[in-house]
């Protein structure tokens, strides 16, 4: 069964390998064992569309963040797209529907508005370069909002609201996965295209990065998607291990809140340090599908895997 995965950190990992002058080991996207989502594994897992996040470490000096973002965008264009003709850049959602049988779609996203600071010209350039989804924060605060790890817990700034309005204008998703609770509600008030690209249910695992029931229900009421994430600490509280069945429990719980048509996958491969057993990299995706088919109808599983996303963003 084909898959749409809305979050991985391949660009960041390749960039870090290029910047590590001590080892001088450059990770290759095609088949590096250091990548959870290398091309070989993506093909084996039958991933039809992979989202690639631009992510910048908090400790990178402010004046260098834009350069870091450009480096990852260059990797996307040269290493991901340029070296592999079977990978097609998804520049608008309708492009997904035009993929041929042997082609894989690649979506460029941004995790944290730190990259463009307070410069909307840079943001508009990111749109022009093909960014289709923007998470305003990682876990900390920036000029748009507080992230979930910021103790202040503030919501959107006026500038952050302006960014969301621009996302609306350009048809770009606003990702709520890392936002503070208050910023989440601020986004939901004004975003036309909200999404949680990689989050689980707080009720089952009370990690602050997970979504509370009222947040999940509000997303579903706006007909927005919630994509489950594969990192064990987001699946089982205070644990670094999880089974596929543990992850299935989150999907089942989201269904119980009314989300059977609003669930997808956002693995966070290459951004996580421990793994679900038998779901250690992108090549193992069909193990998840096989387990889901024991609990849900084939039509429902197809929805989780790819059709829900297509119904929401490609066919609208």
UniProtKB/TrEMBL annotation:
It holds the Pfam family Peptidase_M19. Gene3D superfamilies: Metal-dependent hydrolases (3.20.20.140). GO terms for biological process: proteolysis. One of its GO terms (molecular function) is metallodipeptidase activity. It comes from the Bacteria. InterPro entries: Metal_Hydrolase, Pept_M19. PROSITE patterns: RENAL_DIPEPTIDASE_2. SUPFAM superfamilies: Metallo-dependent hydrolases (SSF51556). This is Dipeptidase. It comes from Ornithinibacillus halotolerans.
